[in-house]
Fold this protein.
Amino acid sequence: MSGDALGGLDLHAAFMRRASADQPAFIEALAIRLEQALPGRVHVERKKDGLFSKTAHIRAIGVDTGDAQYILEQDHGVLRALRARGTHGVVLKREILTVAQWLDGLNEALARLSDEADGAHRVLHDFLMS
């Protein structure tokens, strides 16, 4: 098994451990962390716990990676993972994924975004310094 496969297995095992302990708290923490790390790319849908309740729970987390939208929905304790691909705001394909596939896909997409941002940063730096 390659190092990447082992790292992915560790990621999935950690997710399952943390999510099974207290899924609502885990989803809340994941949403907050993604919102902080990717401002403008993450949409979190919260639903009030009752008509007059001051508390709410996470209904869905959506992450826009440019080429796809990764969506994790929570409904009565059941997680549903989706990847939507499209262009100019029109969804052309929607795939239902396992949570493990969702994590892998999101991880790979975020790695690509990071590489692109790093490359753009280097180009800008080189331009300004020349």
About this structure: The chain has a mean pLDDT of 81. Strands lie at 42-48, 56-64, 69-75, 78-87, 90-97. The radius of gyration is 17 Å.
